[in-house]
Amino acid sequence: MKALVTGASSGIGKDIAIYLSELGYDLILVSRDINRLQETAKEIKTNVELYPVDLTGKDNCFKLYDKFKDEKIDVLVNNAGFGLFGNTWDVDINKELKMIDLNIVALHILTKLFLKDMVARDSGYILNVASSAGFLAGPVLNTYYATKNYVTKWTMGIYEELRKVKSNVHISCLCPGPVNTNFNKVAGGSFNMKALSSDYVAKYGIDKMFKNKLIIIPGFTVRLGVFLNRFISNKLSLRIVYHIQSKKVKRNG
């Protein structure tokens, strides 16, 4: 059994890799940071191959697939991604475009290419890591929220396509709230509510994926928030999200 995990150098991706290894999977670990990948590899109990690459380059995504397309990937975890805090007109557009390339384009390419192989052999699991942000609009973290909406809704569409053809390929979307990772340092903010451990989120996500759950939301508080958001107006939801996100930026400032 073999799994490929992007964004495996830290946080949720690292803990997912470690947990999959504990479950007996050989690993292909993908990230830009070879030093951190090597640190992750020290905690892997099964066979592991490291593939350092910048997935914001579209061609690199195709090269990654070409490298491992014959490896029979049983589990694909698209975890690589980052966010940027700030009003939309203030956020650096080049960093923003790189975020779109990583959060959306890379995930789209890798999902589609490996999915086609999985469908052909009628087996496999894909876990796309989104966020509870995937159900909301996100002032002050606007483009990040939009990218996670894409991931969530696109994954849901694939799930139904697979269900309708009675495929044994399964796709899930992991949508956590705040998690103790390097996210805020990169994005330029800080959490103002209790965050879950990445170890817990990783195990919860993988366990639910193997149970073929479509939308996976760790933590009761976050699940409740996503549920209740259905019953309020868009404008009220925007005000609430803006209040939460702006406080993160102020606390970091």
Write the layout of secondary structure elements.
Blueprint: E1 2-6, H1 11-22, E2 26-31, H2 34-41, E3 48-52, H3 58-68, E4 75-78, H4 93-121, E5 124-129, H5 142-164, E6 169-174, E7 179-180, H6 183-187, E8 196-197, H7 198-210, E9 215-216, H8 220-228, H9 234-252
Parallel strand pairs: 1-2, 1-4, 2-3, 4-5, 5-6, 6-9, 7-8
Helix pairs in contact: 1-7, 3-4, 4-5
Taking the alpha carbons of the first and last residues, their distance comes to 46 Å
The CATH topology name reads: Rossmann fold
* Structural category: alpha/beta
Q: How many helices in DSSP terms?
A: 9
Assembly annotation: single chain
User: Taking all residues together, what is the mean pLDDT?
Assistant: 91
Low-confidence stretches: 184-189
Which CATH class applies here?
Alpha Beta
Strand % is: 15-25%
Strand order of the largest sheet: 3-2-1-4-5-6-9
Helix content: 40-55%
What can be said about the biggest beta sheet?
Answer: 7 strands, parallel
Shape designation: globular
